[in-house]
Design a protein that fits this description.
The protein is α/β, with parallel strands linked by helices. The protein has one domain: Rossmann fold, CATH 3.40.50.1580. Helices cover about 30% and strands about 30% of the residues. A five-stranded mixed beta barrel has the order 5-10-9-6-11. Helix 5 links the parallel strand 9 and strand 10. It is globular, with a radius of gyration of 19 Å. It binds 1-O-phosphono-alpha-D-ribofuranose (R1P) and uracil (URA). The site of 1-O-phosphono-alpha-D-ribofuranose has 10 residues, from strand 5.
Length: about 300
């Protein structure tokens, strides 16, 4: 791809129709997508597809696997970490997939509620936590060290399909619900104490709880996903977004007990949750109605 001529600076797409960063092309990506951070998680989940049709790793490290589940096309896309990677993925997927797009993020998080290692948290909505450079780099300091954005809701229908399936797969007592803080760093902006940097974050998690009393988790992509879904245009019903999104997060870090998940539990949780996530996408959009497979969807 780096050696191919791109169509334009605004929408870099190759002559064969492949997007520049994610290297997605019409016909290779489904309208139902599970997105994860870790490519290994994508491969673990892909074992639960009924059939794999297509796989590609882009030169920037995005992995797309498309297959069939319960007779319908479904893609798994591993994007790496952070909001800009979510932005590349959602925008480039939207460039090549025709019709409605439903996206479930299946990620990991740090729990700031009673949920602990082995539990899963479903996001009812998400907000951004952003390091405020005007505080750190100005003299005198301006504002608070971290900015909290307004929250954006997850899609309620897709989220209830997801939580119903996760409840059934894991047991309802292991599935928590609430708002998720999407930080621009794993460290300073998630309130992790450090002596090697000045982060001014000792009050960050208490402040998150004061502003969002139902905040349950911290991670790094869900708010960008929900924000882009809400900002998407172009559905047949022009006033509705063309993308709907939900998010479930495995608890990798218990921030109150300062415990981190083991690789074995992480793999097992991905295996147990894979079909629940796939089933939720199929429950939500059970047929090809309204899609345009001939025009580019798998
Ligand atoms: C940090 O370890 C990463 O894990 C979380 C965060 O959002 C961040 O991307 O999600 P994933 O496990 O999906 O990558
Ligand atoms: N991912 C995050 O972003 N934070 C955590 O604490 C664990 C996983």
């Amino acid at each position: 791809m780096p050696n191919e001529q791109m169509s334009s600076a605004d929408r870099p797409i190759s002559s064969t129709g492949r997007t520049y960063h994610v290297e997605m092309q019409a016909g290779e990506v489904a309208n139902r997508i599970v997105t994860v951070g870790d490519p290994q998680r994508a491969r673990t989940m892909a074992k639960h597809l009924d059939q794999i049709l297509f796989e590609r790793t882009s030169h920037r490290g995005f992995l797309t696997i498309t297959g069939i589940y319960r007779g319908l096309p479904l893609s798994i896309v591993a994007i790496g970490m952070g909001a800009p990677m979510m932005d590349f993925f959602v925008r480039e997927a939207r460039m090549v997939v025709r019709g409605p797009l439903t996206i479930v993020r299946f990620g990991s998080c740090g729990s700031i509620c009673n949920a602990t290692i082995g539990d899963v948290i479903a996001a009812t909505g998400a907000f951004a936590i952003t390091r405020n450079f005007a505080y750190f780099d100005n003299a005198p300091r301006v504002g608070q060290p971290y900015d909290l954005s307004p929250a954006v809701d997850a899609d309620p229908r897709l989220t209830s399909a997801l939580t119903a399936r996760l409840d059934a797969a894991l047991g309802a007592s292991h599935v928590y619900r609430g708002q998720v803080g999407n930080a621009d760093s794993f460290y300073g902006s998630q309130g992790r104490p450090a002596s090697d940097f000045y982060d001014a974050n000792h009050d960050l998690i208490p402040r998150v709880h004061r502003v969002f009393p139902d905040a349950v988790a911290l991670e790094m992509e869900s708010h960008m996903l929900f924000h882009l879904a809400r900002s998407s245009t172009g559905s047949e019903n022009a006033h509705l977004p063309s993308i709907r999104a939900a998010c479930a997060l495995m608890v990798y870090a218990d921030r109150s007990g300062n415990v981190f998940i083991s690789p074995e539990i992480s793999k097992r949780l991905s295996q147990l949750s894979a079909t629940a996530v796939f089933d939720a996408l199929v429950d939500d959009m059970p047929s090809q109605d309204g899609l345009h497979p001939a025009a580019g969807s798998v």
